[in-house]
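Why run this: before we spend reagent on co-expression, it is cheaper to look at a predicted model of the complex and decide which construct boundaries make sense. The entries below are exactly what would go into the expression plan.
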Amino acid sequence: MKRKNNAFFRWFYGEKDPYLGKVEMRPQPKYENKPSDLREAFRDSMMRDRIYDAEDNATLKIFQKLYRIAAVLFCLILIGILLVNVSWLPRYGQASNPVNNEVSARYIESGLQETGAVNIVTGMILDYRAFDTFGESNVLFIATVTVLILMRLDKEKKAPAKKGVPVYTKPADELTVAQAHDRIYEPKNDVILQMVAGFLVPIIIIFGIYVILNGHLSPGGGFSGGAVIGAGLILYLNAFGFEKTERFFTEKTYKWVCFFALTFYCLAKSYSFFTGANHLESGIPLGTPGAILSSGLILPLNICVGLVVACTMYTFYALFRKGGF
Amino acid sequence: MNVFTYILMGFLVICAISVTFSKKLLNSILIFMSYSLIMSIIWMLLESPDLAITEAAVGAGVTSVLFFVTLKKIHAMVGEEEKDEEKK
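The model came back. Tokens follow.
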């Protein structure tokens, strides 16, 4: 293929940086191949060649050729199978498709009377299919716990105390090192970022709260609003640093918020697992459709999901950055 | 489906291909971010604004930020102090 010597293509292939020399910045040092690096990189393959005697081993050569042919064949067969399967799908938007059954008709026709939610989607995911959403919230929580296990650093890693060996220096614990490391690479007190964040963060968070609270009336709901709030919190953290966010959000806050939200959800909706996804009367009046205090349990459940999602997003970011709060 | 949607779909394909072929990791993350933004506009045109909000917040916001942090952790984005240390 003939490469166009355009400025855009040169930028795309990484040959030219349009800001280099025009904007005040330091260019990156050129990457150099050191012989020791090369030896390190090829050590495994050289070792393997020596063990299997690769130059004189006829079986190995045949196997390697066959392996390549088989890989290409396998890819082609897989592509073929998938394309054939797609051609068997019914055409989009036809009335006889299996999607158009009595379930969706029931949801659309009597969803408003049965759930009281103007937004049918929310009525589905938080009333008819509330146990699905409960599973989703738990998946998010489990994901956070996994990241916590992988990336969390201990606050106090005690040095092994031996008798007769006095410990002169206190070993720097991992979290402090990570914090110092984080502080070096983070531009502190960036004025532009702080001004913009001080202006934008309240708007973002208010929009998120609006989306959560109006989940049963307008598009959106717990997950969308929670994600918006989480993004706002991350922006705040980036602009003002961990000291400011730790005044209102610590590990304890995360634990208690997630505990209460998930427990409330569990108490409200986990009976579905025992009744075979059948509905029980909650006894809460549905109210007038369109009012903010309507549609029974949907509003509190939306708030729970939003809290879990917002805290999860923020926790992910904090854990990725320095392995703790 | 109007012309605007087709243009956006074309952008999606271009983004998806150039993410894999871009040489610098930072460039591919930025292209991935723009993919999410275009996708959220397409959700808007397909009349599902709730998905558009989620896509813009999660796809373009949180995921890209997590990618940036990961790049920093594996030292693919070099900080200025680190460069100074290397020179010394």
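Chain A is about 60% helix and 0% strand. Residues 58-88 of chain A form the longest helix (31 residues). Bring this page to Monday's planning discussion.
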